[in-house]
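lol so apparently i was supposed to do this last week
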Amino acid sequence: MALKKYHAKRDFKKTTEPKGKVKKDASPENLYIIQKHAASHLHYDFRIELGGVLLSWAVPKGPSLDPTVKRLAVHVEDHPIEYGSFEGIIPKGQYGGGTVMLWDTGTWESLDSNPKEALKKGHLRFILKGKKLKGRWDLIRFQKEEDNWFLKKYDDKYAKPESEYDITEKKPKSVKSKYTMEQITKHYQDVWDEDSPKSSSKKKVQQK
Ligand code: MN
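anyway here it is w/ manganese (II) ion bound
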């Protein structure tokens, strides 16, 4: 597990995303987060800490509490642990440009004694202890050697039918700032104008 792909995709002179590095000391509680990301297509980035990085899947429709619903989760590059607190705007034209919200945060616990091995085999069983997502979940790879997985709620006391409860609609706000996507965009808007004459003059004023 390394961050080569993560670093290669980003220009850290232009984005405020953390550069980060692989964390050496293993923490007893493993971080779990979901970021709602309004890139060219809105999606939810599901991330769990393992081996000093955040393993990551992009979930186009976001999680569902309904155990009969399988949500496509595309495995993407590992992210640094520091990414787990990132909320803001990735500048236009940069990789993943758009607003990022910290939609859920907490810890996760593998139900497999060797999660790395379980991932290799294509089925990870785990417990989420998030502010929004709780209970058992499964990540299941449905194409061998491919990046396409399903994220699925296991039928336990936290399960709810999608027709009655869509968690992405019921709980749309940030767990960090309590902001909506629109409020985050407004709050961090200056980043968008980084290269514009207006904001460079603003910067000069601030320097005086
Ligand atoms: Mn993303």
